[in-house]
Amino acid sequence: LSLVANRGQRARPSNLPPGPRPLPIIGNLLELGDLPHRSLAKLARTYGPIIKLELGFVTTVVVSSPMLAKEILQTHDAVFSNRTVPNSITAHDHDKLGLPWLPVSPLFRNLKKVYNLHIFSSKKLDLNQHLRSKKVQELVAFVRKCADAGEAVNIGEAAFRTSLNAIDPHGSKRHLEALIQKLFDFFDGVIQRRLQLRTEKGCVRCNDVLDYLLDLIEDKNETLDISLVKHLFLDTITGGSETTSSTLEWAMTELLRNPEKLSRTQAELHQVIGKGKTIEEVDISRLPYLEAVLKETFRLHPIAPLLLPRKSGEDFPIGGFTIPKGAQVYINVFAIGRDPSTWDDPDKFVPDRFLGSDIDFRGQNLELVPFGGGRRICPGLPLAARMLRLMLGSLINIFNWKLEDGVIPENMNMEEKFGLAVQKAQSLKAVPIPI
Ligand code: HEM
């Protein structure tokens, strides 16, 4: 036995978190089922807020309480800020190509800086809000066309197109690819091109990024592997669109399933904005009920219900147990959002619970962390939050919605599909009627 231990096998800490007994080789994989966030929430009810499973050969710890989530995402963020990378991601080298999977490193910090300061800061987003406003108007025009034809709208699909366009201000993925090609050429060292790029008409946000990247290479102390920039934009931007549109689809689904909540949201919009108008970003702070609807949607339907996996950097004590070094760590925000010890009637859609409450979704209140927290918090949060309010507010301030034939609020299909984002298993389709 001592020989085996000497061959690099580390002694395991003795007080590991509790959990179901693993089978040989497959461990607890069968326990996960089709909807792992729900299965893990159930296991937490049996074993407590911190559990251990063996997923194949990967030791995994799942945390399901706000208090322990705070330890991982905030207090000891530095220990848990790297990620385990799923085989499905390494198989296609995606781990080297996108910010979500990069280890914390100078490159990671530089890329995150680009996002936080030069793309998604309030100042930058305020400057280019007209671009989002235009995209929302396009969405409304599309829905109006469907209304004229009496056709149902596939809400998720329509929102996906709008979200994607909102990030790529010129409205096409091809444009974005062209921009990135320009970035490449640029960094190949032709300094004269700087002038040409600067004087090109167009996208404020893209030029900001270019400026920032330029500053980085001119500053000898910073290094940025530009070959990764392309992927940074194309992996994460498409991903960011799906997350936003799925959330919008869940919000619309809950409102159509709860007509009295829909009426209340519409009443606020009619009063503050005026019936039939699109929402602008300056209006957002005057719409507390719309905000509460969004929070309630994040609580019930976090599209990344286990966040993205974290990795323990050392044997570390959490909640009276030891999380072993290298273990994969998940935060079950779905379970936290439905915990009856935190929320009254946790399975009910009651936006009113957030009125007059300070709880927000920006990573500070661990009861509601759909975007994660700490240094790996979702950098797209500010954009997603703005887009969601604009799209949702406009869709219900301008239209009433009729469910398809045979569907009534009581029998709407609420099944989930677990994937990159937890989506509706059956797309929401509804017929718009202009107000
Ligand atoms: C409703 C919309 C969205 C939700 C719920 C969401 C959720 C998340 C979550 C849970 C994480 C992992 C956080 C953690 O480990 O603590 C994440 C990471 C990330 N998200 Fe989002 N996201 C959304 C929209 C976006 C958008 C619009 C973008 C960009 C355009 C984006 C880009 C990213 C990136 C780059 C990361 C990786 C950050 C890192 O690893 O440091 N997301 N997101």
Structure characterization notes:
- With 435 residues, this protein is an alpha+beta fold.
- The chain has one domain: Cytochrome p450 (Orthogonal Bundle).
- 47% of the residues lie in helices and 9% in strands.
- The chain contains 17 helices and eleven strands.
- It has helices at 2-6, 29-32, 36-47, 66-75, 87-90, 106-119, 122-127, 129-149, 155-167, 173-187, 193-199, 204-218, 229-257, 259-272, 288-300, 333-337, 381-398; strands at residues 50-55, 58-63, 153-154, 310-311, 316-318, 321-323, 328-331, 399-403, 416-417, 423-424, 429-434.
- It has a four-stranded mixed beta sheet.
- A hairpin with a 2-residue loop joins strand 5 (316-318) and strand 6 (321-323).
- Helix 8 (129-149) packs parallel to helix 17 (381-398), helix 9 crosses helix 17 and helix 10 (173-187) runs antiparallel to helix 13 (229-257).
- The longest helix is centred in the middle third of the chain and has 29 residues, at 229-257.
- The protein is globular.
- Mean pLDDT is 84; it is low at 1-8, 168-172, 186-205 and 216-224.
- Bound molecules: protoporphyrin IX containing FE.
- Protoporphyrin IX containing FE binds at residues 99-100, 167, 236-237, 240, 243-244, 247, 303-304, 307-308, 370-373, 376-380, 383-384.
Biggest sheet, open or closed, and with what strands and sense?
4 strands, mixed
Counting DSSP E segments of at least 2 residues, the number of strands comes to: 11
Which structural class do the helices and strands define? alpha+beta
* Sequence stretches where pLDDT stays below 50 over 5 or more residues: 1-8, 168-172, 186-205, 216-224
Mean pLDDT: 84
Count of separate structural domains = 1
The proportion of residues forming helix, as a percent range, comes to 40-55%
Rg (CA only) = 23 Å
| N-to-C series of helices and strands | HHHEEHHHHHEHHHHHHHEEEEHHEEEE
CATH architecture: Orthogonal Bundle
CATH class division: Mainly Alpha
